[in-house]
Amino acid sequence: MDVEKFIEPSSTYHMLGSDDPYSYAQNSEYQKQLVVSAEELIFELIDKHLDIEKPSFDPNKIFRIGDFGCSIGPNTFFAVENIIKSVENKYKYKSNIKNPRIPEYHVFFNDHVDNDFNALFRNIPITRKYFPAGVPGSFHGRLFPNATLHFVHCSTALHWLSRIPKEVTETNSSAFNKGRIHYTGAKKEVKEVYSTQYRKDIKSFLSARAQELVPGGLMVLVILGFPGGVLPSESSIGIGFNILGSCLEDMVQMGKITEEEVDSFNLPFYYPSPSELKALIEENGCFNIERIERLSEPMKNEKQNLNILIKVCVSHLRAVIGGLIEEHFGNEIVEELFQLHMKKLHENPMMFDEKYRKEANYFMFLKQKSHL
Amino acid sequence: MDVEKFIEPSSTYHMLGSDDPYSYAQNSEYQKQLVVSAEELIFELIDKHLDIEKPSFDPNKIFRIGDFGCSIGPNTFFAVENIIKSVENKYKYKSNIKNPRIPEYHVFFNDHVDNDFNALFRNIPITRKYFPAGVPGSFHGRLFPNATLHFVHCSTALHWLSRIPKEVTETNSSAFNKGRIHYTGAKKEVKEVYSTQYRKDIKSFLSARAQELVPGGLMVLVILGFPGGVLPSESSIGIGFNILGSCLEDMVQMGKITEEEVDSFNLPFYYPSPSELKALIEENGCFNIERIERLSEPMKNEKQNLNILIKVCVSHLRAVIGGLIEEHFGNEIVEELFQLHMKKLHENPMMFDEKYRKEANYFMFLKQKSHL
């Protein structure tokens, strides 16, 4: 047995745990709305594509579901409940036999080893209809034995890279990302090395999941990306990152952190276009793409007070990247940085303007090619 | 599907987590030596009883191992490694075919939802040959789908009751355990209600595991108990509990805690005799008993300085029951209580006398009756 494949890629990314006001659990309403808007699609596509007559899906056996990048809940629980409801519907009403059996469900919640699994486990609903388990480790590597899972779910997690491409922090590299914290607005070499890393990561993810899924197993991905042709610097996400970067620059001026610290800090996020992602999936060759759909934008029709919008935005960003900031710059600057960020967004709230909301969430429904 | 079976019995028992000096990981040398002394027996008995020719044990499939009451390691990792080594030996050298396949291993680490799974996950060895998962919940209930596991391991965990029998805290009950914290030295009614609770708990455990194991699945239990006829009050464990109880009484006299608090505190441990346990397993009827053996006593031949012995003993007890004490009496008294306990053991070290070391560890190797 190859021990290599069990070794965790070096990475310490995770959401802020526990139930404090800056935790992911308290700041993921946007993600929740995505889960809700994917619900009907999942129901329809499970009905269409789940091959309950095939031996892999024998209802006398166990139906195993994996959620990758689960954080500490509750969105992962909503997603899993919806998948189970959809699978149950298929077994109950679409079977050729009279009193069809329903399989038992074994559900695996995956996230990085630094995720707060204690909080996740405390949050699992008591009225669940499944047996839960937690799986620590990077989803860019193998996490399950061969042909274990029947359904994979991964929502708004795949924009996390497994690592920052090293060139962006090397002063002698043409992709050195001086004074910036992301490829947004940076020179093209920076975007290129981010893109190369993303390509590697997506391929690792797809190959690992293809082996872990049973023949004909299903996978839902919800991917945060940009429509073709949109520049990140013209989007609210990109504008937000640039403002955060300028806050760090201000803190250099104030002598709170060093220029070198900012130069060596980069956000590990990449946002593909749907056609870029489609090409990567086709190149990988392990999955048929059954559906790609742009999801309606969460919270779009909620006319909210700008003060509230800014507060929600900063709280969410802090839940997601607070850990990265703390690890790189130390705990002391976190509070001040996000206060400064909030102040700057009040001074310049352009990222909340409708015309910059160009990022989009793409729903993808894949089916493992059963000849694997 | 019956939701009832997923609901956790009320209980918050768990070992102290993390890597602090009072944690279970730092204070479980005794348990480690038990794992080591069970190693050879497990190797021999897997070789003898693992039915690798049966469909449930098809090497093209996955071999699933569950360790129940795993705490945060490292003993659980030693145990799992030994089981895998033994299983691999059987597949490699005892198969009828030439280049036999070896299955992949999926390993499930179970403990209460309050166990520190974050610490457990950080501690999993990097060079493991298996895919790990954590399973939160009481092992007195169902934790896995039907016919999932091939091998169950549970070492020095089954003496934990799922709850304190309520009669021992009811002032109007004949089993009210006034002024004591355990059935050691108490009136016979107290022992009886502890025994009744143990009977229920063992039956729940066996029935749950029998359903979760594949036909012919194997189970190792290591049980801390007393040989028939030995009174707990004549054993070092019992003497230790009585001294701890007297420390609590002293703290009542000092006005640090109330008499009612002591009267309502009882340790959730029961130590059966091997014949009592054997009768319960036979009555349950789901397993054949392939072997019962008394393990050699850990650390017996290590002649240690009394001061060190007392320190190790108090640290171990604190790792195991510190959480219970804290929950019942509050955090403030913990340090003082164990200091007092240490002092009293120095004044009266009789529990360390060879003649009182009457508790014993029983190794049991069970095989699920395959007609289930």
Automatic annotation (TrEMBL), chains A, B:
Domain of life: Eukaryota
GO biological process: methylation
Entries under InterPro entries matching the protein: MeTrfase_7, MeTrfase_capping, SAM-dependent_MTases_sf
Pfam families recorded: Methyltransf_7 (PF03492)
UniProt keyword terms in alphabetical order: Magnesium, Metal-binding, Methyltransferase, Transferase
GO molecular function, one term: methyltransferase activity
Transmembrane residue ranges: none
Entry similarity comment: Belongs to the methyltransferase superfamily. Type-7 methyltransferase family.
Family annotation (PANTHER family): S-ADENOSYL-L-METHIONINE:CARBOXYL METHYLTRANSFERASE FAMILY PROTEIN
Entry protein name: S-adenosyl-L-methionine-dependent methyltransferase superfamily protein
Lineage: Eukaryota, Viridiplantae, Streptophyta, Embryophyta, Tracheophyta
